[in-house]
Write a structure and sequence with these properties.
CATH architecture: 4-Layer Sandwich
Distance between the termini: 57 Å
Shape: globular
Order of helices and strands: EEEEHEHHEHHEEEEEHEHHHEE
Oligomer: single chain
Strand order of the largest sheet: 1-2-3-4-5-6-7
Helix content: 25-40%
CATH topology: Metallo-beta-lactamase, Chain A
CATH class: Alpha Beta
C-alpha cells in the first residue's frame, strides 16, 4: 500500500517474490511531470502493483519520467514495461554488463570462468538463469537514457533534486538529495537494519569496499533530516547508521583476515568459514544465488585486504589462493 511520506512524495512498496528483501521501495514525486524512482523486478506482480498505485494516484504514464539509482534488477527490471514514447529515463553512467549480460552466453561464460578462479562451480541452470528475476535484465539502448553526473539537478515540481554519486554497492550508484527539505533518496547505499551487499566477482585493484567507505563518508558530511531508502524503513539518524555499517565491514574484514591466516586458501573456502546472517545453518544448504552473493561480498573484502597490503594472492592450476603477508 502506497504512503505519502512528505507532501507530493509517495512511497510505493513493490513486492520481490522469493527474495529475502521482500520488497523494494519505489518513490513517486509529483510535479508538472511526475518522477518515479526505481521500478522492481521484471514480473507481472511488480507491474500490477505500480499500475494500481498509479491509478489510485491519478498518474498518467505519458506524464511520468523514471530515475534509476543503479542497475540491479530489483531497481531497473521493470523499466521496459513502464516506459512510453514520452518517458524520460534518468540515471548515472550505464554499466557495460547491463547492456550485454542478458541472454548473452559469452558474457555469462566469462563471469562463470572468473568465479571458477575462486573455487565456485556454477551449476548449469542454477545461476545466471534469465528466467530468474535476479538476473532478468531487459536491455535498452544507451540512447534511451539521460546520463547524469555529480551535482547535476533534476527539477520535479517544487523539488530540486541534486545528484550524489555513491559507488560501492553498485558502480555506478546515484542518490538524489533535496537540499531545501534535507531529504535523501538513498537507493541501496544506506539501508535501515540491512547491510547492503558490497560485492566483487573478480580481482580488482580498487575494491568496491573502498568506494563504499568513501561514499558513506560523503553522505555523513551532508545535512539530512530524512533518508528514504530502497528497502526497509525510513531513517533519520543516518550518521549512526553509517557508523553501524562501517563497523559491520571492519568486523567482516577482521574475520576474513583471521581466516586467511590459515592460508593459502581459496575464496570459496573463505566464504564457507565466514559468519552469515542467513536462515540456513550450513553453507551446503544455501541456495546457489545466496552462495553467489556471499562469495561476491567475500571477494570484495579480500580485494580490500589486498589493496591494503594485508594479504597476497597467487594463481595455481587455475585457482586463486590467498595468504597473509608476513610483516
Amino acid at each position: 500500500m502506497w504512503q505519502e511520506v512528505h507532501k507530493n512524495i509517495y512511497r510505493i512498496p513493490v513486492p520481490l517474490p522469493h527474495n529475502p528483501l521482500k520488497q523494494v521501495n519505489t518513490y513517486l514525486l509529483r510535479g508538472k511531470r511526475d518522477l518515479l524512482i526505481d521500478t522492481g523486478f521484471n514480473l507481472e506482480i511488480c507491474e500490477q502493483t505500480l499500475l494500481k498505485a498509479f491509478k489510485e494516484l491519478a498518474v498518467e504514464r505519458e506524464n511520468l519520467d523514471i530515475f534509476i539509482t543503479h542497475f540491479h534488477t530489483d531497481h531497473v527490471g521493470l523499466l521496459n514495461r513502464l516506459i512510453v514514447k514520452e518517458t524520460k529515463i534518468w540515471c548515472g553512467e550505464i554499466p557495460t554488463d547491463f547492456i550485454s549480460l542478458a541472454n548473452n552466453k559469452n558474457v555469462r561464460r566469462k563471469r562463470e570462468s572468473l568465479l571458477a578462479e575462486f573455487g565456485f562451480k556454477v551449476k548449469e541452470g542454477d545461476l545466471f538463469d534469465s528466467k530468474k528475476p535476479e538476473f532478468d535484465l531487459i536491455i535498452l539502448k544507451p540512447k534511451n537514457f539521460n546520463i547524469l553526473k555529480e551535482d547535476d539537478f533534476i527539477k520535479v515540481g517544487d523539488f530540486n533534486l541534486q545528484c550524489i554519486e555513491t559507488p560501492g554497492h553498485a558502480s555506478p550508484h546515484m542518490c538524489l538529495y533535496e537540499p531545501k527539505l534535507k531529504i535523501l533518496f538513498s537507493g541501496d547505499h544506506i539501508l535501515n537494519h540491512i547491510s547492503p551487499n558490497i560485492a566483487s566477482f573478480q580481482l580488482e585493484k580498487n575494491s568496491p569496499l573502498t568506494y563504499y567507505f568513501n561514499s558513506l563518508d560523503k553522505i555523513a558530511a551532508m545535512d539530512i533530516d530524512l533518508v528514504l531508502p530502497a528497502h526497509g524503513d525510513l531513517l533519520t539518524d543516518y550518521r549512526k547508521r553509517i557508523e553501524e555499517l562501517k563497523i559491520h565491514h571492519w568486523r567482516r574484514l577482521k574475520e576474513t583476515f583471521e581466516i586467511v591466516k590459515s592460508g593459502p586458501i581459496t575464496g570459496i573456502e573463505v566464504a564457507k568459514c565466514l559468519t552469515w546472517d542467513i536462515s540456513f545453518e550450513a553453507w551446503a544448504d544455501f541456495p546457489e544465488t545466496q552462495k553467489f552473493f556471499a562469495l561476491g561480498e567475500t571477494i570484495s573484502h579480500l580485494n580490500y585486504l589486498l589493496e591494503q597490503g594485508e594479504i597476497s594472492v597467487e594463481k595455481r592450476e587455475g585457482l586463486l589462493y590467498f595468504s597473509p603477508n608476513s610483516n
